[in-house]
Each structure stands twice: as structure tokens, then as C-alpha cells.
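I had to read the description of the data format several times before I understood it. For illustration, here is how one protein appears when written out as sequence plus C-alpha cells:
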Amino acid sequence: MKPTLLLMAAGMGSRYGGLKQLDGVGPHDEVIMDYSVYDALRAGFGKVVFVVRRSFEKEFEIFARRFGGNISCDIVLQEIENVPEGYSYSPERTKPWGTNHAVMMAAPVIREPFAVLNADDYYGVDSFRILAAYLQSVAVEQDNYCMVGFQVENTLSETGGVSRGVCEVNDEQRLSGVVERHQIQRVNGQIRYIDDGNNAVILAGGTPVSMNMWGFTPGYFTHSERLFEDFLRANGHNPTAEFYIPYAVNELIQSRTATVRVLPTTSQWFGVTYREDRPAVVQRLAQLHRDGVYPEQLF
């Protein structure tokens, strides 16, 4: 059974200043998602699902046609009002409920093991290879998940702070905990983040972090529904609270409901977190084409 690729593209790119998911950065105006779909296709994935907002659904319908039938595509919508019946939320809320809420929107169209990625991140060829291999080996009915673990120093932006899931990994290469940390950046030669108390905390080089490159089986949707209801009871009227993937995964690990194998990679992440990141991304993609990692035309 071929796994499915789920690309989270509902973010509006508030820091970037536009709909960055559809900003052409490759030599022939390719967007970063083009490279993810291309790498997934040659790694053995069989379908792509895009999670988007209704406000730019039409743009994504046009975008999905560029693959020319090479891979099956579905589009699902993530909106603020996508909450279970009987739950309410703050009228001040302006955006959906975060990354794990985005995953939940794909439940009606996914029945096989699946990967979850950010649409605006470049992950590298090897990351797709090891992720596909794991998902092709796992039983559909099992709660044995995986995560591609990047080294924190390979995931930074030169422009500003980023958010990452900082991981604890046991001796069996299984994830024992993951916490979303914010404003991670290199300052005076040290990598640090800002904690909830507004304190700077140092991260050692080599610390594994989540880049939201996960592998799940369909049972994850059922667990997420239950956890989302718990989340809404506690946070539903907080207009900025977000239901992150690391939060849900951590709850499942701590309750021994699921296990998560960490698949290490030395791949170098890059992306367009900020508009100022764009020139460097353009240069790096052009070099990958020149080096033969990608053909002149992807599709």
C-alpha cells in the first residue's frame, strides 16, 4: 500500500507577507511544494492531500493541476468553525486551530499510512526516502508512528526566530517527549529559544527537533478527535491557542497509546519563514538543479 502525503498549506504567511505557499522560488517558477510532491512521488507515495483555507481554495485547485496526473490529489479545507458539535470559541479568533487541527481535516480522504509536512518547508530527498520506507512497512491498524528528526542547527533561519518541536529521544530511538519551542535562533554563537516565562534557554548542537515531518496511521485521526475536545474544553475561548501536532503526539506517548520512532537525518532544512529568506531559497534550489538533484523540469 502506497502512503499518502498530507501538506499543510492553510497558513496565510503572516510573517512572510503573502501567500508564500504559491510563491515561485525555483528556476522555472516552481514553489516549494512542487519539490515535496516530486520527492514524495519518487520515494513511493501514491497520493497528495492539501489542507488549505476556503479563501484560496481556487488557487490551489489550479496549482494541483500542474502535476499532470502523475499523482492523485485531494484538497480539504481548514476553517475556524471546524469544531465538534456543542463546542464554542472566542469571537475574537481570527485563524484556525493549528497544525493538528489541520491534520484532522483530512480524515475523510485518508485510509492508509500517511506523512504530514509543512507546505512551505524544503525537507531534502533523503527525508522522504526514509519516511516512505517506514510508512510502507507499518501496519495500518497499529499506533506505531514516526518522525524525521532534524538537528536543530540544520533548521535555523538567518532572518529571525523559528518554532520547532524540541525532542527527547530514548535509547531505542523512540520519542519520549516533544515540546513546541518558539523564537529559536542563533545569538552570539549559541542556539537558544524563549520559554513561556520570556527567558532565553540554550539548546545544544545536535538536539533533535521536529520540522513537522511526521508519519502516522489512520488511527491518529480518532485519537486527535478526543484530544481536540479536551483542548477545546481547556482553551476554546483563548483566541490565540493552537492545537499543535507536538501537543497531541506528546499526550499519546505519555499515555502509552502510541509509540513514535525517530528517523534521524542530517538533511539541511530551508524555507521561507520570512520574506527576507526568499533570495537564499532561490539560490539553493537553483544549485540543486545544477547539481542534478532535480531535473530541469519537475513535471
Q: What stands out?
A: Residues 60 and 179 are 31 Å apart (CA to CA). The two ends are 24 Å apart (CA to CA). The first strand starts at residue 4 and ends at 8.
